[in-house]
């Protein structure tokens, strides 16, 4: 079984469930590195989950041993980080939304296709904040 090597960008609250699932549930994944603008938060996450490297975003994207980037940054940063990851030759999974405009999302989808990389985004949940607010 091939092990997918993961780099996580963004170590805020949502990263906890990703770390748990990628280390305890999915046997074919290994988190290699984390990056965050808050280095202390990244260091704490790495220590808790035995993640070997705490890097800058640029260092993480430059690593040849990282196959997939999991983007858990605020939505305003999604386009920039996803584009950089795709250009670095990485598959990308991101929290929602994919981008903040349809044009940016279309560009990322086209870039992923051009590079032959997978691009996925977490689905909105029926009871999540956005849908609940819209329903109200």
Describe this structure in a few short sentences.
By secondary structure, this protein is an alpha/beta fold. It has helices at 15-25, 39-49, 57-62, 78-87, 102-115, 129-135; strands spanning 4-9, 29-35, 53-55, 68-71, 91-94, 119-121.
General description of the model:
This protein has helices spanning 15-25, 39-49, 57-62, 78-87, 102-115, 129-135, and strands at residues 4-9, 29-35, 53-55, 68-71, 91-94, 119-121. The model has no long low-confidence stretch (mean pLDDT 93). Helix 4 packs parallel to helix 5 (102-115). The protein has a six-stranded parallel beta sheet with strand order 3-2-1-4-5-6, sandwiched between helices. It is α/β, with parallel strands linked by helices and 136 residues long. The chain is built from six helices and six strands; from the N terminus they run βαβαβαβαβαβα.
Low-confidence runs of at least 5 consecutive residues: none
Distance between the termini: 47 Å
Rg, Cα atoms, Å: 15 Å
Number of helices: 6
Mean pLDDT over the residues: 93
How many strands appear in the DSSP assignment?
A: 6
> What proportion of the residues form beta strands (DSSP E)?
15-25%
Query: Structural class of the secondary elements?
Result: alpha/beta
Q: Can you summarize the main beta sheet? A: 6 strands, parallel
Summarize the helix and strand pattern as letters: EHEHEHEHEHEH
Shape: globular
Strand numbers in spatial order across the main sheet: 3-2-1-4-5-6
- What does the oligomeric state look like here? single chain
Helix content: 40-55%
């Amino acid at each position: 079984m091939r092990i997918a090597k993961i780099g996580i960008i963004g170590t805020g609250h949502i990263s906890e469930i990703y770390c748990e699932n990628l280390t305890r549930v999915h046997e074919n994944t290994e988190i290699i590195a984390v990056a965050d603008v808050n280095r202390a938060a990244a260091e704490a996450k790495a220590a808790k989950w035995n993640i070997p490297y705490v890097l800058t975003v640029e260092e993480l994207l430059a690593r040849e041993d990282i196959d997939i980037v999991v983007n858990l940054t605020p939505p305003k940063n999604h386009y920039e980080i996803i584009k950089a990851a795709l250009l670095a030759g990485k598959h990308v999974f991101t929290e929602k939304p994919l981008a903040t405009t349809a044009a940016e999302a279309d560009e990322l989808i086209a870039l992923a296709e051009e590079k032959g990389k997978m691009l996925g985004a977490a689905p909105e949940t029926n009871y999540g904040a956005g849908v609940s607010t819209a329903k109200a």
